[in-house]
């Protein structure tokens, strides 16, 4: 395969990395897979990533493989206020590298995206936006005054991000983000984001052959993902005589006690033995073992989403999906018979979607088949090649003049 080569590409996001005593650099598997795949299309990929806090070391489950991928420390993964008030403490390494770079890719939203963009000087700058801080504030488990402060900061960060985008190529991974940014920024392009490799696919024709049937959610243990709605749905299923279990797999979110609330709600409903949190697993065989024993995948997000990478992983592992109609989910899945879509925040709606899949054999097999076919069009290899092509075109002076 021919390479869409960019000589030296700089990259920043707030996911941390760390150099082990053996010299190998580790990060989270969600970040590491993406960067290794992108490095294929670069002469050198310089990743400006933070060093982890003590509690974050356990989440660094991926070893970088690409020999042309270099980690440059952006300092300790400090608090958001510290990164916002004192950005120069973190961006100094980027300034030292600036004259050796050919282009810059900043993933966002992120606290240091605006400051790093300002330091880019005349370098070709691209932003890859995969979320919206302002859209998730209402569901944060914070006191009223703290939530108001977070909302103010999110609005400020968004305006600074918009200022950076005036001279940048802005890549967005959902129709919702496209609708938000295309009226105010000059160059906005829709892309897809995924961590799914071509080797990850697992073919099976059907699920739900045995009881109990297993429901699965794999992703961040974030209140906004609708975890409490899932527990409520399981309680309603059990009350109807259904033999159902719910497996939860993914990293806990600092500052969000949702797993405590999940355990409390399950206990109150008498279903503690039917809701099991298995901790975090790296992307790959350890995570996909849960997909391959599950019967239905749940994505009960409450608010905006780009398009959850977890859905791509479920589709690739031949799991029928029940998901809520938020963000980019219906835009990708509706009218393609690839998932059962339900309204957000409704446990009863989620129950109906689950029952439709569990007892609808023809529907279920069609969802599995169509979902796997759709996922094959969105592997990491394909998407990073497209992304690299966009970045290469943008890094050329002629390309920037014509976009």
List keywords for this structure.
7-stranded parallel β-sheet, 2 domains, alpha/beta, globular, Rossmann fold
Number of domains: 2
This entry's quaternary arrangement is single chain
* CATH superfamily annotation of the largest domain: Glycogen Phosphorylase B
Low-confidence residue ranges:
none
Distance between the termini: 27 Å
- Shape descriptor: globular
Derived structural class: alpha/beta
Percent range for β-strand residues: 15-25%
Computed over alpha carbons, the radius of gyration is 21 Å
- The tally of strands reads 16
Structure description:
The protein has 403 residues and is an alpha/beta fold. It has 2 domains: 6-194 and 380-402, Glycogen Phosphorylase B (Rossmann fold), CATH 3.40.50.2000; 199-375, Glycogen Phosphorylase B (Rossmann fold), CATH 3.40.50.2000. Helix content is 40%, strand content 19%. The chain contains 16 helices and 16 strands. The strands form 3 sheets. A 7-stranded parallel beta sheet has the order 6-4-1-7-8-9-10, sandwiched between helices. A 6-stranded parallel beta sheet has the order 13-12-11-14-15-16, sandwiched between helices. Strand 15, helix 12 (329-333) and strand 16 (340-342) form a beta-alpha-beta unit. Helix 1 crosses helix 15 (380-395), helix 8 (227-239) crosses helix 13 (347-358) and helix 11 packs across helix 14. It is globular. The protein starts with 5 loop residues before the first strand and ends with a helix.
């Amino acid at each position: 395969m021919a390479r869409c080569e960019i000589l030296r590409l700089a990259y920043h996001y707030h996911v941390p990395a760390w150099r082990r005593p053996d010299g190998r650099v580790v990060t989270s598997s969600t970040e590491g897979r993406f960067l290794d795949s992108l490095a294929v299309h670069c002469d050198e990929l310089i990743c400006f990533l933070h060093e982890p806090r003590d509690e974050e070391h356990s989440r660094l489950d991926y070893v970088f493989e690409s020999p042309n991928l270099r980690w440059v420390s952006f300092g300790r993964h400090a608090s958001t206020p510290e990164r916002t008030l004192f950005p120069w403490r973190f961006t100094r390494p980027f300034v030292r590298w600036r004259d050796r770079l050919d282009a810059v890719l900043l993933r966002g939203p992120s606290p240091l995206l605006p400051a790093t963009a300002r330091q880019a000087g005349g370098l070709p700058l691209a932003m890859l936006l995969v979320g919206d801080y302002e859209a998730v504030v209402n569901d944060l488990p914070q006191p009223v005054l703290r939530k108001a402060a977070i909302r103010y900061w999110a609005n400020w960060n968004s305006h600074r991000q918009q200022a950076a985008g005036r001279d940048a190529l802005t890549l967005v991974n959902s129709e919702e983000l496209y609708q938000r940014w295309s009226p105010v920024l000059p160059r906005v392009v829709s892309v897809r984001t995924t961590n799914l490799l071509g080797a990850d696919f697992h073919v099976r024709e059907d699920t739900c052959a045995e009881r109990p049937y297993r429901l699965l959610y794999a992703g961040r243990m974030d209140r906004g993902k609708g975890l409490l709605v899932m527990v409520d749905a399981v309680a309603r299923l059990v009350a109807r005589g259904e033999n159902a279990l719910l497996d939860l797999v993914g990293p806990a979110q600092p500052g969000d006690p949702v797993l405590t609330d999940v355990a409390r709600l399950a206990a109150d409903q008498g279903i503690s033995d039917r809701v099991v949190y298995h901790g975090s697993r790296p992307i790959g065989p350890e995570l996909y073992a849960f997909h391959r024993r599950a019967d239905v995948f749940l994505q009960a997000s409450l608010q905006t989403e780009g398009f959850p990478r977890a859905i791509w992983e479920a589709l690739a592992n031949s799991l029928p999906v029940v998901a809520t109609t938020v963000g980019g989910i219906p835009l990708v899945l509706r009218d393609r018979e690839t998932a059962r879509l339900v309204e957000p925040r409704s446990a009863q709606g989620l129950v109906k979607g689950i029952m439709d899949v569990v007892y609808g054999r023809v529907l279920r097999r069609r969802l599995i088949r169509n979902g796997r076919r759709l996922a094959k069009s969105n592997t990491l290899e394909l998407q990073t090649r497209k992304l690299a092509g966009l970045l290469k075109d943008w890094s050329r002076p002629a390309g920037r003049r014509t976009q």
